[in-house]
Give the backbone structure.
Amino acid sequence: MTADCGQAGDGFLLEVSQVMDKEKVKAFSERVFADMSASLASGMVYVGVKTGLFRAMEGQGAMSCEQVVERSGLQARYVEEWLKGMVASEYLQYDPAQQNYLLPDEHAFMLASDDTDHFAGGLYAMIPVLLAGAPQVAEAFKTGGGVPFGNIGEEGILALDLLNRGAYQHRFVSYWMQSMPGVVERLEVGGRALDVGCGSGHVSTALATGFSRAQVLGIDPDAASIEQARKTAAAAQCGAEFLAVTTTGLLSDASIEPFEFISACDCVHDFPDPLATLREIRQLLTDDGTFLVIEPKVADRLEDNVNSVSTMFYGFSLFHCMTQSLAVDGCGMGACAGPEQTQALLKEAGFGSVELLPIKSQVNLFYAARR
């Protein structure tokens, strides 16, 4: 038996069971529309970042559509629709009397600030990359396996680069590493540093630039990422070197000496076999060396992860981190292990000391492990 509960959401006439809470149905329908609008707004933000529209509007005050078109050099009809969509989603402000559009300074701070440590554009750049693989991920639910890392292509590598480079360039040496003064002292006078899973090379480049006497090596199994890393180092005019190799391959090279400092930034959860790789990293570390692990900031208990940051990380995990591991018969650890599991994994790998560093971050947790 059903009862008509009237309208819920925007004009939807629903029939619900009498045991349902009508207000909850209405509230959830509003949530559906909110999430859908947020998804498409994110796509419009991606376009604004990709085409330079936010940069064109930064610091210009109120602008007419024609002025935005002229300053950006883009097609008028597309710009007009984008401006209206960004007003509807409250990324831009609109003056109906003057028919002008304004990018607030506070929004420009996050959207038109490329290469800073507060630039959020990289998050939006990941959306088309992640969702492009959604059909394959859905298929993997039925057949197993996953979407390999190589499928993200050049666009994905550039998006990952955009996502992290500002923080790595501006925070890694000047802020994050200051929590390990012994490591800083060691690298200032020389020493050897290794960045595992180096991606586009910004951590390695930051290390080589910040510690000019140190020998810095970045490794990653993805050849396309290593190619981009070498370009990154060349642009920075630093001495970082890169190899398309895994830790297994590095250990088999008799010419490789142990490292005083090793980092693994936002990648331990991507490893097909995290425990085996961490054990190899321990072997590559000097007896008095330090291993820095940076992982997503999520809580150990699921009920404590009901928030926007954790939701974002579960999305990253499902569409990128976990699936690329499962694609190569890995364990599929995923991005949301939490501090308890992460520290337990490091200890199981043989590290005698594991410390959660007191570094403030909205999105990262930092661990220092020693032999």
User: Anything to note?
Assistant: Residues 234 and 240 are 9 Å apart (CA to CA). The mean pLDDT is 93. The first strand starts at residue 2 and ends at 8.
